[in-house]
Amino acid sequence: MQKSEFIGQVSRKMKLIRIESQHSQDEMASLLGISKKTLIQIEKERNEASWSTVVTLCALFNESEILIHLIGDDPVEFVKTLGGRVFWHAIESGPHFILQQNIISGHYRIIDLDHVRWYSTFDAEDAEHVRSKLEHQREVSDDTKA
């Protein structure tokens, strides 16, 4: 299935997913980060959801029977195969650690080059400070080994 086909299929099922999860239109729009007007347009099949809205829907409602039936797999894993590492955006990279931001929730994480998570926070300044501190500690550790 192509990305555009997936967006169309998920868009057509959005109302059913909302009903399945027992959310009002106001609640669903708020969860997805879109206006109620946009949600109504999608539910009435006048517009399709954006890729970021579809990714958010799959992440938040990954146990939806409707999504699982549509995809035949875990919605989050399926989205990853269509869009690569769609959830994380690299903010800052050093020789040992990478600071990333989640495009859905907005939170930050620090991972090493093996993709092991070392730290997580919603505070950007804190995340930058901790990454810098981790880089310094790793460099000092590397210097003492040499």
Structure description:
This protein is 56% helix and 15% strand. With 146 residues, it is an alpha+beta fold. It has a 4-stranded antiparallel beta sheet, covered by helices on one side. Strand 1 and strand 2 form a beta hairpin. Helix 1 packs antiparallel against helix 5 and helix 2 packs across helix 3. It is elongated. The relative contact order is 0.10. The mean pLDDT is 88.
Offer a quick outline of the entry:
This protein has helices at 3-20, 25-32, 36-43, 51-60, 65-71, 75-83, 124-145; strands at residues 88-93, 97-102, 108-112, 117-121.
How many strand elements?
4
- Oligomerization: single chain
Indicate the mean pLDDT: 88
Low-confidence stretches: none
User: How helical, in percent, are the residues?
Assistant: 55-70%
Biggest sheet, open or closed, and with what strands and sense? 4 strands, antiparallel
- The first-to-last residue Cα distance is 51 Å
Number of helices: 7
Give the overall silhouette.
elongated
- SSE order, as H and E? HHHHHHEEEEH
Strand content: 15-25%
Structural class: alpha+beta
Q: How are the SSEs placed, and which strands pair?
A:
Layout: H1 3-20, H2 25-32, H3 36-43, H4 51-60, H5 65-71, H6 75-83, E1 88-93, E2 97-102, E3 108-112, E4 117-121, H7 124-145
Antiparallel strand pairs: 1-2, 2-3, 3-4
Helix pairs in contact: 1-5, 2-3
